[in-house]
Each structure stands twice: as structure tokens, then as C-alpha cells.
Protein 1
Amino acid sequence: LGYPEEEVEAASVEDPRGVLAFQGGEEAALARLQKWMFDDDHLKEYFEIRNGMLGEGYSSKLSPWLALGCISPRRIWREAKRYEAERTENKSTYWIVWELTCRDFFLYKALSQGNKIFCRGGVIGKKIPWRGDQAALEQWKEGRTGDPLVDANMRELKATGWMSNRGRQNVASYLIFNLGVDWRYGAAHFEEHLLDYDPCANWGNWVAAAGLTGQRVNRFNTKKQLNDYDPQRQYVKHWGCDVEPEPETSEPGAMSQSQEIT
């Protein structure tokens, strides 16, 4: 494909800071499912641990195998139901099935809306004066914004191809609302780097993060999120980021509609 030999060799080496050494194929997918759900017994506590960012156990991390067709959502659902029958049924066991349903939602959203999920104005066709420039986008991509939570997650993505769900929500919100950059550049960057890239889930989540689906708009306060989900700063230190966030940017948000601050 024309890549330099040293770049190819570097890509084949797992970053030791990564959450998991992902291996392709159905056998690896089934082994991961068995280990996370049954051997380590994480499913019973999934609702409580799902917002983690450091380590391999806070989520199933089955999305790369799902995206590549190595395992089906129906198989995961069936195993979750077996877990409920053999061990326990609670909010956590419900939640993993709910997340599989969300995955289906984005498939159907893409089918119903077609190319609108890729358009600047999204599903609702809203005209937004994006103010962010190329320099801001590049700082975000490289994990050099000065916001430790954003930077740590972006460095993890670049080094490993993985990012937690909590991280994805925060970095998307920061690019869109703090930096005022067109959301499509973020979606395209994720498409380039994510191991679990899926066109419907990726672009569907990004257009929703930008508030362009007609649903509620969430703008994340990354300082609060850092205190809530990494209070000891273990995650941001793991990725070599300053432990205290910079003052909030004075850059006006890209949107003026009602937002829910989280």
C-alpha cells in the first residue's frame, strides 16, 4: 500500500500502555467474551464500572470484534441471557443488552436518514458557523489542547486505536463546543484510527454529539468529568498529561441552542 517499512513495523507492535492486546478472529472474540463475562464475572457490576477509562476490565471491549463481524450481537445477547439464568439478573445485565440495542438504533438511523448523517448540517440540516481552525483541530488530534482529560484520550486513540465510551463523549464535545470545529473532522479522525470503527455507530454518534439530530444536546464540562471519573488522575498520568486542566477556553461555542451541561 506504499507505507514506509518502519511505519509498518511500528504498527505491528502493541503499545504497552493500551487496555488490551486485541487479536482478530472469532476464537479471540469468544475468548474475550468468556473471560470478561464469566471468568472475571464483570457483567454483574457493569453498570457501576462502565465509565472507567483505565484497564481492561471496565467494559467488555467487544466492539472491535463486533465491527469486523468476528462475533454477532445476537451471540453476546445469548450469553448475557445465559449469565442471567446461571448467575444473576440486575441493572448491569440489562445495560449490556441495552447497549447492543443502541448499536442497532444507529444502524436503523443510518438506513432511514441516508447521507444526512455525513452532511455538515446533519439530519436537521442546521446551518452552523463553525469557527475552529486547522490549528485547533491538529492540537486536538495530537492531544495537545491543554485539557488533560481530552489530551489523554486522544493520545490513547493515536497510540492504540481504542478509546473508552466516556472518553469519546468528552473529546467530541470539546472539539465541537469548546474549539468550534466542524464535527465531521472529528468523525473522520475516528474513522481513521478506531479499531472498532463502524460507519453507522461512528457517524451517528458524532452527528448526535453535534446536536444535529433534533434530540437533546449534551455539552460536557471536561473539568467536572475529570473530577468525577478520574479523581486520582491515574488515567491522565498514565498518558503523560498534566494533572490539572487549563482554564476553560473563552472561544464561543459553535451552537447557541439549549444545551445540557454534564
Protein 2
Amino acid sequence: PRGSSTMDPELESELQAVVNSGPSETGASAFLRRWPLTRVLVTAAEVEESESGLGNLAKAAARVLVSTAIGAELVLRDEGGALQLVIGGLLGRANAAVRAEAARLAALAIARATAPVPSSLTVALGTACVDDDVGVADAAAAAVATMAKLFPPLAAEAIEIAQREGGRAKRATICDAAVRAALASGCPEGFATQLETLLLVAGDESDPLTQLSALESFLALAQAAPAFVLKPSRLSAFLRIAARDDPFHAADQALTILGAALARADLAALETNALIG
């Protein structure tokens, strides 16, 4: 039952064995022949909500199992409703710690994915990226970044969902998630549509705190992918910000971004950018 602080002693013993042995396909397979993964996921979430010490054991075991190929497959193909439990944890739990843990489990499963992840998980992660709890939003953004390494278009879709769901109040959070995903993908141009929309946030003087936060995210992009920032249309946007006189030093931040990009730029790539505009 929800909120119970007890656990089947046999299950508890075997969960402890899973945690002690660490990720092992053989060990996970043997455990999952005896216990449904959904039982572990439910136990982890429910004892976490009851603040029982057993929650840490179930949570640790769930992480170990989902980080194996067999465990990840069970989640992603929704065996016994495992994926729906993860999505429900992301979106339906009142406890922020449970929502954040669901996002971390999603990232573990995605990292072992051999086929595009289900669209329902993409939607859930995009929505969770704008969760009111900072820890949940950060865990979801990390999961989207993991997705970007394997399935960049799905990660870009998750960012678009975050943009739709988050609205103006979450623009800084979305900018951070988008930059993290773009960098993780290794090809920021695949996120050009989302990032150029967010570049407007960096240029919006009406909300100085959000503007500065967005510029901080773009600084990370400038350092890791200077050619993306220095493409003429984007360069012009940062130059416009740098030319302003504002009391919050957004102009200084824009100059820092441009300086970081130029310091790391490949001159040959910049010449090509200038030619194709």
C-alpha cells in the first residue's frame, strides 16, 4: 500500500544483492525472472514518498536494473507498464524527489536505447524540463541531453514541448536545457530553430534576470561551439546586445560571449560562414 514502510523481506534481500553487485546483465536477468521491474519501480516511489529508509535501497536497485540493457528495454517497451510508471513519476507525483528520480531513470534507460524512444517519454521529459522544482527540471534537462546524444531530433522535439509548456516564466530554464541538449548532440545546428528563438530571450531587456541567465547559457555554447555563435545572423544579434547601454551589464555579457567564441574559433570555418551567411 502507498506509504507503507515495510517491504517483503525476500524482495528486500534480493534488492540489496542487486545493489551490492552493481550493473550486471546476468544478475539483472536473474532478478527480473523472479520480480517484475514494475514492482521495484512502485516500491521505490512509494517508500520514497513515505520517507522510509527502505526508499534508498529500492531507488538504488531501480537505478542499477534500468542501467542494464535488459532493464532499459523493459522500460522503453513498457513491459508491464514500466514506462507508464516512469512517466507517471515524472508528471503525476506530488513529491519532487520522486519526479526527479523518474527523470534520472529515464536518462538511464535512454542511454541504453537501441531504437528511438517512445514519443510519450519525449513529451513527458519536455514537460518536466519546465517543472517548478529546480531539481526536477535539471534532471529532466539531463535526460534530454542524453537523448540528444543518440536521437537529436527527438531531443529537439522535447525542447519545443518545453517551450510550449513553459511559456515566458520558464524561458531561462528552457534556454539552459536547449543549450545542454545542443552541445550533447555534437551538432548544435540541429537545434538552430529552438536556439534562435531563445536568442530573442537573450536580447529582451524587459526581463533583465532572465536575459542574463539566457546569456550565461549562450556563453557555454560560445565556448564549446564558437562557429554556431559566430554565424553572421547570430553574431549580429549579440552585437546589438553589446551595443546597448544597460544597468544590468547584459552588454558586458554579450561581449564576453563574443570574445569566448572568437578565442576558440576556427578561422577557416568562420570564413565559410561568412560566405554562406
Protein 3
Amino acid sequence: ETGDDKDDKNKLHSDDDDEDDDDDTAYSVRMDRTIDTPIHDPDDDRPSTTKPLTTSPKKDNTKNTDTKSKTQPNLHDMLETNLQSLYHSAHSTAKSKLNIRLECQPKSASLVSIFTVPLLTRDEVTQNPSLRNLYPDLYQKLLVKAMEEMERSDGRKTQLSWREVYGEMKEFVEDKVSSQEEEGVVQMTVVAQAVIECEEVFCVRDVGLGAVVQGDKDGKMREVSHLVRFEMVVDWDWQKEELQIGNWQITDWDDLLDGNIWYL
């Protein structure tokens, strides 16, 4: 084995180690900043003067730079509007400068639950508020139908058959969301919850008073768990028989918005 071969092997091992380090810190966040100016409103078209929080740097790959810039979502795409507004309002009502220190490195994640909300999306309910009570109204209608059947049978029939339930659901849903079929696309929302285990330092300090208003004042790294809720809209083109999968969006974490499923 020549000296050049050894050098090549050492270089390969070094590159592998660097890639492992990049993978470990790919989603880590570090921020230590004093904020005393309003945070940029996501609905405001004016450019923001607030610097984004810094993430751990990864190797620059010039070959994929253009592709990544086109595919990476922005803050509005990643965080649901109500969740963004929660933090904007918290800052706008603050009475003094706040120093925020955050270091967070995710270690693992596990799926807690996943379910679908057929025929409904946030955008659709926003545009048509009458859809907000779609499923509660459907449940009430089925309950009334079951009570009527029980009275007609003198208590012998205590539940609806699957055929009756399906018939009521089909009629009710088609009446509410017929516009989706007219467009040739049927939409649904997929909701998932995951627990993310992290090593984290978090402290919010009132600069004027010098007091810690949130988090830990000792600045030690701690193991914490965050419950994060994600949503994704899926389109089914029934004419082409094609499924179009959207992007995941964070809609809540640690139940700050009680799940943030206001549209049901």
C-alpha cells in the first residue's frame, strides 16, 4: 500500500466523519439575541428587519444550491398562521427588551398518532365558514336518525346499519362539498403528532429587570420532549386517478393552541 493510498483512505474517513457531524446538527438551532423592535408581520409585504435565527451550518454544496433554494419552504409554509401570530403577539405586548437564548438539538422522534380529515382543509373552511361544523352536524344528524329508528322499532333497533350510516354520510357530504367533485379534485387533511426528544437550553430574560421570565436561568443543557402537530393536504384527482401529496406544516407544539384544529 503506497503513501498516496493511505492519504486517500484517511481523506475518505475524514469526509465520512464530517458527514456524520453534519447529520447530527442538521436541525439544531442556536440563538442568543436581544429583541426590542417589532417582529415582522407575515401578512405585511414590507421587508423584515429582524434577522432570522441561526441554524448549525452545513457544508456548502454548490451543485445543489439552486435546487435547494427552490424546494426549501419559507417560514409561512413551515408554520401555520395562528402559530406565527401567537409569537408575534407575545412580542408586541412585551413592555421591555427581551434577551432570548435558545440552543436546541433534536435527538430522536417518534410518531404518536396520525389520522385523516376527509374532504376538509383549513383554506376551504376559511373561504366557506359554513363547513366548520361539517362533522359535528353530521354526527348530530346520525344521532337523530338513530333515535327515530329506535322509536319506530319500539326499542328493538338500537343502532343504524352500515348501509344507513353510509347513505346519510354520502348525502350530507355531497351536499356540503360538491364543489370539490366539480373541480375534479377531492381534498383531505392528514394530521400527525410526533414527540421530539431534544437537548435544549432555553431562557428568556427581561433586560431591564435582569429577571428570567421564562425558561431556566442556570443555562444548563437539559433533555426535553416536545409534542409537535403537523398537517398536510392531500389531493385526489379522481379523473386521472392520481394522488398529489403536499408538504407538512407545523400547526402546534406543546399544545400552545390546544391542537389548533379550529376548523372541525
Protein 4
Amino acid sequence: AWHCQAPTWAPRSLPLKNWPLPIAMLLAVPLGFGQGVIFLLALEDYSAKRGCNPSLSLPGSSTSDTTVTQVPFTMSNKFHCKAVNGLFECLPSSAAILYAYWTIGYPEPPDVPITPSGWRHERAFLSAIVFVMLSSSGLGLLELDFCTSRSISRKMRRSLRYEILHGMFRTTEVLMRVCGYIWFMVIMRRAAWWWWTPMAFDLFVTVILVTIYGGAESKMIVRVLCSVPCLFANIFLFIDSPYKRRGARRLSQRLAVRNAVTLVALPALAVAGGACPREMHGDWAAHQTVIAGALVGSVVYWFLLWWIASPHHFQQKDMPDIYSA
């Protein structure tokens, strides 16, 4: 809301930086903290699409050397405010809320639960919030892929079926990663003091991989910020910019190996760390739906990864890039 523009629906309200500071802080409550800017930018995007000729080509795709169709500025705003918002807020929030849901009233009496229940329907309320957060994370990643890959965006425009499957792929990826770590932390919470270290170590490894293969970015804070959503999803998978696609492909291959190793290492580490069969059986009895959904989601994720990343669906044209210049 501070930088975004909405010339059709809110020409005077946005961006907030143009207002005096007291008025900007007041408007930041409904537009920023209340996420009202998302609603305005959705309307702006709708108006922009209705005003555009659908037969016009995307930027850089015109057959003429002199004619280039300009994409409205609001589409870029929508990408930054919705997709990035989903990545940096919904992904960590999904993990935190799922942990709260998983540990409320668990283990059952006579043991003392990890998270005591505050009110009667708290668990049902958190389950709904987790569903919304996971869905928002998948949609944010879907928007990210649409904006970073011309071939993926072309597929989505042509096929609703592909768009749904791509969204399912991203949602199951988040589900697999989040549930795997939450399951481990709940199982090991009472068995070992280091129940949180695998996720911290994974984040450290992700930062190292992003630093090595992430290109010429010199600011460490940017690398860390990119590594946080990358802990739960491979945000570099579909980048096909000629300046960055080779580094993104190498990084994505390492992250895919990381995901596979984590899927095997967490259960093995739980058994080696002292998680008793009684604890695992009790966790399964209390969270059958979530665990079964995570297992099914893991299988679906790897199948869709093979299907979507195949050359038939995701093609990177063999043209010179900055690494081969």
C-alpha cells in the first residue's frame, strides 16, 4: 500500500507515501494491515484486463520489432502485493498455525498437552485457518510461477486444467514440507531438546544454496529473505529469464534433492532420536486426517513435479544467456 498505485479505483488514496505521515498511518490500518489494498488491486487488475485487447501479445512476444504491448502497471503491483505477500506471510504462518493445531490437547490426558486448549472450538477454528493459509500459499506460488515463466503463463492461459493441476502441485509441495517438519517437531518435542534443529539446519542449508547458486545478488539480507519461502517451496523452479535460468535450474536441482533427503531423513532421525512407537501410534490416532493427507500430498507432489517439469510442459528455449556470453 505504501508504493502501489491504483489509478482507476483509488487514484487519490494510493500510494500512501504521497500522503502526510499522520494521514498515511491512518489509511494504513484498512489498506495495509487490513489488506484492503489487495481488494483494490484485484479490481484494478480486472479493469485493466477488460480494457486490454486479448489478441495483443505479451511484452517481448510481438512479431514486430517496433511494436511492443505494454502491460498495465497494476499487474506488476498485483504480483508484488499478492504473490509475495502469500510467500512471506502465508508460508511461515501455515507452519506456525499447523503446529498450534497439531499440539492442542496433545498428548491426551493423563499427559500434559503441549498446547492447552483455550476454548471449545479452538481446534476446529485453527483447522479452517490452516486450510486457508495452505490454499493462499499455493495460490501465491501459482501467481509467482505465472509471472516468472513465460512458458508457464502461456500454458495457464490456454488450459484451465493445467492451471488447476499447477496450483495443486504448489499446494501439495507446501503441504508436504510443512507437515513433515511439524510432525517431527511434535514427535520429538518430549523426546529430545533438539526437536527444532532440523528445520533450522534446513534453513541454513537453503541460505548456503541460494548464496552459491543465486546469481550476483550481493546483499545477504535479500538472500535470507528469499531463503525463508524457499524453505517450504522451490520458488526458483520455473524461472526462465535468459539472464537467470541456468543458475535457477542448478539451484532447483539441489532443492529437489534436499526435499527428497528430508522426506527420508526426518522419520529416520525421529526413530534414531528416541521417538517411541507408543508416541507415534498416539500421534497417528490423534491426527489421522492430517498425516494421511500429507502422505497422499507427498505422492501427488512428486508425480506432478515429474509431469509439470517435463520438457513437454516446461520448455526453456536454447538461446544465449548471460552465463554463456
